[in-house]
Amino acid sequence: MTARQIDGKQIAADLRAAIALGVDELEEAHRVTPGLAVVLVGEDPASQVYVRNKGKATLEAGMKSFEHKLPATTTQAELLEIVQRLNADDSIDGILVQLPLPKHIDASAVLDAIHPDKDVDGFHPINAGRLAIGRPGLVPCTPSGSMRLIRSVEPKLAGKHAVVIGRSNIVGKPMGQLLLAADCTVTIAHSKTADLPAMARQADILIAAVGRPEMVTGDWVKQGAIVIDVGINRVPAAEGKTKLVGDVQYASAAAKAGAITPVPGGVGPMTIACLLENTLRAAKLRRGIKL
Ligand code: GUN
């Protein structure tokens, strides 16, 4: 079997267009323009690119974008004060503090300070708890984007065995919760799992979120499985250049899978689209407007 390639770029573009319509409708009916604040501490080059792309996409969706670029020397107390200001600012519906933060700042303390209703990353313990017990809230963007990609090729998920490789709070754990809520049988595998390839081979839906370049090869993939590659790894390429690869070795996995996401152009574009979706959702929830 040669896999169908899941076009994350196109699916994300369609979602962003739908969000832009939703923003117009909200403006028309309620005179509200959603606002997203993104806070970046320090000069990490990858983070700078992400933050720039987020700002651009926010404006393109018709929302207001507020960027706070702070020096790497910013103290935790200063950052917490900015978060509190954004919590209290009525023109801000979503707050995202870009990770990783410099080492002298306790990221958990900062994420916990974001008001749960403005937590468009879905990282606050209240939102993680809501997701775990099946209550409405704000859901992390990469897992919700991945669910959309899975549903684009297979709407009937009940009873499927989903194996998530990786147990991070940002991707692996919330991904497992979303698949469980979709009635999948879920295994969350990780670096200590015995015989990881054999576990992966049981998956109807295989999600790789480990941050190890091309770790998942074709012999880990069951015939016809849906393979979602969350990894974005920069590795050396020819002529001293670098290239992006996922956690999945694309060619060998595509030879076995039924459908597979590429890197780049798979999960990546969905993350920003889902961030915009969360911002629109937060703007409505905060005002008691029907979703
Ligand atoms: N850094 C890498 N991915 C993310 C993300 O989804 N949210 C935040 N806040 N920081 C990140």
Distance between the termini: 41 Å
The H-and-E topology, N to C, reads as EHEHEHEHHHEHEHEEEEHEH
Identify the overall geometry.
globular
CATH fold topology of the largest domain: Rossmann fold
CATH class of the largest domain: Alpha Beta
Q: What is the tally of beta strands?
A: 11
Class by alpha and beta content: alpha/beta
Q: Would you kindly provide a written description of the structure presented here, covering whatever features stand out?
A:
With 291 residues, this protein is an alpha/beta fold. Helices cover 41% and strands 16% of the residues. The chain contains ten helices and eleven strands. The longest helix is centred in the first third of the chain and has 23 residues, at 8-30. Bound molecules: guanine. Guanine binds next to strand 4 and helix 6. Guanine is lined by residues 96-99, 121, 141-142, 271.
What is this structure, in a nutshell?
The chain is α/β, with parallel strands linked by helices. The protein has helices at 8-30, 45-60, 76-88, 107-113, 125-132, 141-153, 172-181, 196-200, 250-254, 267-286; strands at residues 4-5, 35-41, 64-70, 94-97, 161-165, 185-189, 205-208, 226-229, 233-236, 242-245, 259-260. It has a 6-stranded parallel β-sheet with strand order 1-11-8-7-5-6. The chain has a 3-stranded parallel β-sheet with strand order 3-2-4, with helices on both faces. Strands 9-10 form a two-stranded antiparallel sheet.
